[in-house]
Amino acid sequence: MNTENAIQFPEGFLWGAASAAYQVEGASAEGGKAPSIWDNFSQLPGKTKNGTDGKVAVDHYHRFREDIQLMAKMNLKTYRFSLAWSRVLPNGEVNQEGLDFYGALIDELIANGIEPVVTLYHWDLPQALQDEYGGWESRETIQAFLKYAEVVFKEFGDRVRYWVTFNEQNVFTSLGYRWASHPPNVSDMKRMYQANHLVNLANAEVISLCHRLLPDALIGPSFGYGEVVPETCHPQDVVAAMDANLFNNDWWLEVYCRGTYPQRIMNVLKQLDLDFEVTAADTATLKAAKPDFLGINYYHGGTVRRPSATVMNEKNLEMTDPYLMAADGQKETPEHLLFQSVSNPYLAKTDWGWEIDPVGLQIALRNVYEKYQLPIFITENGLGAFDTLTSTDEIDDDYRITFYREHLLELANAIACGVPVIGYCAWSFTDLLSWLNGYEKRYGFVYVDRTDEDVRELKRIPKKSYFWYRDLIAKNGQQLTEEK
């Protein structure tokens, strides 16, 4: 279905932008904050570009009021941000300075008519929990997460309606426990699946806790989703795409929404001795919790063909980004039994090699909604690019405007097809630390003047896309009709 005439977004649609604590806050040792696993991991040689870290980031901790004023001038309706767990409970005990900071941030947003959307976990586990319990490989960490969630639900529940449990569980478990390119710096698939199961339990427990403590709140996970399509119409390629979607998407969404793991994937894991114990109590916990919405982080999907009979040899060993939905070079992996990822010749790519697939957003939203029948919140969608600051302090990022326009048109198509969408949070509001890629990979509507090596004055400079999005929000998306 195509919206041939007027673009229609719902009244009260939450136009927004997003960030994550470690990537923007800085003040890594201020205000009572203790180290997170990212504070320590970023100090390991060779793990991040140019040794970049979040010690200063873009100094949102000290400049949040300035940033929120820019949000207000942009007409932003919502701002999604995460709490740093190690700022709230640095060593298992409540840190009032941390609560005061987030309370002031939330109050400032509300005073400017901006709905806060709070993410509980955006990858920065307190290092103390990693050291004491082994992080997400221990059920003790689930209990610690429940304690942390209860503290912030009670502290901010009167002002925050929308909560996100975990950001991109599929990414932080894979990169942390399979490819050793995120903390805790492990390369062991069996440990990855065991840890992932415990995160699923934590997600379910916290959703149930929120429903008990905050009956009027809405809570759900934020998942890095990409629809997988077959390379050709050959029936075996179609089967491979079906298996790839089970492996890359439904492996998590089935658990979130129905409390069960897809049997096809469980069978493959058992074949490879990667299976894990699911107790009767675990099943009851997973089935008892149902999210109020699904957060979808969309950047692109994937294309696959039927799997090759030949396992990659040592010369082809290469770590790949999970968003690329490709098997890595580790032998005897589930992907090698299920599908083989290929490039899509019909799609352009970003400067970092990610395929740009706006239509894939419509496909993803329609499929997710028809399967799970939950409202959807676009919690991330954006373009990382090299932005150039001119001598007159301007950033002409027309490529970013084109990216957003094309994706929002497909979002409108999905809404026209009957998909209930709560809101859209672009990634990101300001430029920020891009985890492994430093500060050169820029996503923001607002340029932050710093480099990997030089913090400079961190001057905020709105980009051309900032003003485009401002005008789009003012007309609730009608500008897209005029630009078609």
From TrEMBL:
<dbReference type="Pfam" id="PF00232">
    <property type="entry name" value="Glyco_hydro_1"/>
</dbReference>
<keyword id="KW-0326">Glycosidase</keyword>
<dbReference type="InterPro" id="IPR018120">
    <property type="entry name" value="Glyco_hydro_1_AS"/>
</dbReference>
<dbReference type="InterPro" id="IPR001360">
    <property type="entry name" value="Glyco_hydro_1"/>
</dbReference>
<feature type="active site" description="Nucleophile">
    <location>
        <position position="380"/>
    </location>
</feature>
<protein>
    <submittedName>
        <fullName>6-phospho-beta-glucosidase</fullName>
    </submittedName>
</protein>
<keyword id="KW-0378">Hydrolase</keyword>
<comment type="similarity">
    <text>Belongs to the glycosyl hydrolase 1 family.</text>
</comment>
<dbReference type="InterPro" id="IPR033132">
    <property type="entry name" value="GH_1_N_CS"/>
</dbReference>
<dbReference type="InterPro" id="IPR017853">
    <property type="entry name" value="GH"/>
</dbReference>
